[in-house]
Amino acid sequence: MISVVVTEASQVADARRRAVALGQALDFGETASGRLAIVVTELATNLVKYGSPGEILLGTFQDEIGTGVEVIALDKGPGFANLDEALRDGHSTGGSAGTGLGAVRRQSQAFDIAAWPGRGAAIVARLHAEAAAAPVPPSHGAVGVPLRGEEVNGDAHCFLQHGFGWTLLVADGLGHGPQAAQASTEAVRLFRNSPLAAPGEILSTVHAGLRHTRGGAVTVARYEPDRGVVTVAGIGNVAGAVVGGGTIRRTVSLAGTAGHVARRIQEFEYPFLADDLFVLCSDGLVTGWSLDAYPGLVGAHPSLIAGILYRDFARGRDDATVVVARGAAP
After folding, report:
1. Is the confidence at residue 99, as pLDDT, over 70?
2. Which of 39, 106, 219, 306, by CA, is between 20 and 30 Å from 70?
């Protein structure tokens, strides 16, 4: 994803320019580019007014409608005491017309917001090239940001849906920069070649295929709704967790470096209900993260949950990737 730190007005234009360029690469026409520009301008302007320092994340997504642009706005400002009031046209605490967030919601095919007094706010907006009807609620969302100063992210992820189930991979190339990205990109390519194999078998294939790279940490997870389980196999410190029922259950990943050292590869199964969350993070996030301080967040858009985890738990000295996936009834 593209990260734009927003602390003053000139950075609003930078965020808008980068977003429009991303949309045009996806064949956004003039109308769609205009909608995208409105969304990013409003969100970035709000960061300057109320949430500085803030951050705009720009990336792409794919759903049953097609590919689009995802915009995530994050800040650690005062938050909102009343979200319904903040979204109502005409409401303003900054002397403006008070139509910003309402405009963002109207221009987006998917929109969600989370905020708590004194704990900042997070907003996600998804836009397609065509203003189609809103898709079904997404099964996953992700944030992946390179170490500041790097052009590429040394982490990579891939999420593949099959029926009501899914298979997910997160790879963290050793170190950061282009060589780390080469390793994680190769892990995704190998994963895509056999996504329906057992997680341990996929991980074995990835481990063997990364020998010509610097290697890294890799975890593969498979959700089987008919069995009510998620099966996880990992090498290294890509950390998983099942979140549900007010608890967090951390998953096991065995020591080693995919592509170089793995004494054994083993699968572990965990109960996973339809309304649970599965979270998979590179070691750019601290391992002790929790959702306890964010009432109601577990029901939010998965990209919003990923954004909050990135905002509040990124170490700041490595690439950071977090993927959030939901269960579903078979």
Report:
1. no
2. 219
CA 161 vs. chain centroid, Å, equals 16
What pLDDT is stored for residue 89 in this prediction? 59
Please name each of the domains of the chain with its CATH number: 2-128 (3.30.565.10), 140-326 (3.60.40.10)
pLDDT tens per residue across span 110-168: 999 999 888 889 999 999 998 766 667 789 999 999 999 999 999 999 999 998 999 99
Write down the pLDDT at residue 175.
Answer: 95
3-state SS track over the chain: CEEEEECCCHHHHHHHHHHHHHHHHCCCCHHHHHHHHHHHHHHHHHHHHHHCCEEEEEEEEECCCCEEEEEEEEECCCCCCCHHHHHCCCCCCCCCCCCHHHHHHHHCCEEEEEECCCCCEEEEEEEECCCCCCCCCCCEEEEEECCCCCCCCCEEEEEEEECCEEEEEEEEECCCCHHHHHHHHHHHHHHHHCCCCCHHHHHHHHHHHCCCCCCEEEEEEEEECCCCEEEEEEECCCEEEEEECCEEEECCCECCEECCECCCCCCEEEECCCCCEEEEECCCECCCCCCCCCCCHHHCCHHHHHHHHHHHHECCCCCEEEEEEECCCC
What would the 3-class secondary structure string for 28-45 be?
Answer: CCHHHHHHHHHHHHHHHH
Residue 119, pLDDT score: 85
What does the alpha-carbon distance between residue 170 and residue 243 come to, in Å, rounded to a whole number? 18
